[in-house]
Design brief:
By secondary structure, the chain is of the alpha/beta class. The chain has a single domain (8-323), classed as Metal-dependent hydrolases (TIM Barrel). The protein is 39% helix and 13% strand. The protein has helices spanning 23-30, 47-63, 74-82, 103-110, 139-151, 162-171, 195-203, 214-217, 224-238, 266-269, 290-300, 305-323, and strands at 8-13, 35-42, 68-70, 86-93, 113-117, 154-156, 176-177, 208-210, 243-245, 249-250. The strands form two sheets. Strands 1, 2, 3, 4, 5, 6, 7 and 10 form an eight-stranded parallel β-sheet that branches. Helix 3 links the parallel strand 3 and strand 4 (86-93). The longest helix has 19 residues, at 305-323. GO terms for molecular function: metallodipeptidase activity. InterPro entries: Metal_Hydrolase, Pept_M19.
Length: 325
């Protein structure tokens, strides 16, 4: 069951803290977003922190059934739309919270994690990060892809090394997505994806969701027009059925300390040598309200209303309908 129209935000970041405010999620709902995937942990976050975040976010969702619905199916999203709620799923950015155990994938799925990628910028025992030495998907990584497919979770390749992402897409028996990634051809940055990766993603039946982060759009004050331009590039390369939106807005809440415990070095995860010429916390984002402006911006780059609806959520809904179970 796929709703006729659905606005799908493929990746957003609240503070990784159990008491994080959901006010930004309300802003997304008011801007017309029907489903949002919220990050609950990255490779640098220990399992204890990830589990506390999941518990806290689930409690907030359960405490406000008039506003939020934890979604595991397209039927849940349709019901949320009908009830004026925003549907929510969780995502993991990296395989380290899996503790090298493929069985952890199904456990996270049962808690609401609906998509995952395997490496956050740096290499681990499963996969390569996009800012590290290329090796390719490891044998454990092959087993992890199989576990993700079996759990009905969306296999994501954002933040993943180029060779490794191609290995993942060749291994997966389900469509693969980039939940927040932009064309390398438009902006030269290690986090952006090559035409080869975009074509491989489309060949799986997957979707490349355009990020709204300044570094990856090549504009310190990114606009909805920048997002539309990147979306149009992907559509021209592989077709409009393989384009989505993942603005990747980090909603910082200064009163909450969500840093990983212990010896945490941001310069390792976001290296200057990889193009982060200032701290990642200085990134700027395409505003939440861009969701209301996207239809006109996409029309301005040559898409009609039906094309815009696919980009804004129809494509991701199609893939989720196939993958989730």
């Amino acid at each position: 069951m796929i709703p006729a129209r659905v606005n799908w935000e493929s990746h957003a970041c609240l503070p990784l803290h159990p008491q994080a405010s959901f006010a930004p999620i309300d802003r997304l709902r008011e801007a017309g977003v029907n489903y949002v995937s919220i990050n609950v942990g990255m490779d640098m976050n220990p399992v204890a922190q990830v589990m506390a975040v999941i518990a806290g976010f689930r409690a907030t969702i359960a405490a406000h059934p008039d506003r939020y619905r934890l979604a595991g199916s397209m039927a849940d999203i349709a019901q949320a739309q009908a009830g004026g709620q925003i549907a929510i799923g969780f995502d993991l950015e990296g395989a380290m919270p899996l503790l090298e155990q493929p069985d952890m994938v199904a456990l996270y799925a049962s808690l609401g994690v609906r998509q995952i990628h395997f490496a956050y910028n740096r290499n681990n025992s499963v996969a390569d990060g996009c800012h590290d030495v290329e090796r390719g998907l490891t044998p454990l990584g092959v087993r992890m892809v199989q576990a993700v497919n079996a759990a009905g979770m969306l296999m994501d390749c954002s933040h993943t090394g180029r060779r490794c992402s191609l290995d993942i897409m060749a291994t997966s028996n389900q469509p693969v997505i980039f939940s927040h990634a932009n064309p390398l051809a438009l902006v030269e940055h290690g986090r952006n994806v090559s035409d080869e990766q975009i074509r491989a993603c489309a060949a799986t039946g997957g979707v490349v969701c355009v990020s709204g982060v300044s570094f990856f759009l090549g504009n310190d004050a990114p606009t909805v027009q920048d997002v539309a331009r990147h979306a149009a590039y992907v559509a021209d390369l592989v077709g409009v059925r393989h384009v989505g939106i993942g603005l990747d807005i980090s909603f910082h809440q200064g009163e909450l300390d969500d840093r990983p415990p212990g010896d945490y070095d941001p310069a390792y995860w976001w290296p200057r040598s990889a193009g982060y010429d200032r701290a990642i916390m200085k990134a700027t984002y395409t505003p939440v309200e861009s969701w209301r402006l996207l239809p006109d911006a996409l029309r301005a780059v040559g898409m009609d209303g039906d094309d815009a609806a696919l980009v804004m959520g129809g494509n991701m809904a199609r893939v989720a309908q196939q993958v989730w179970r």
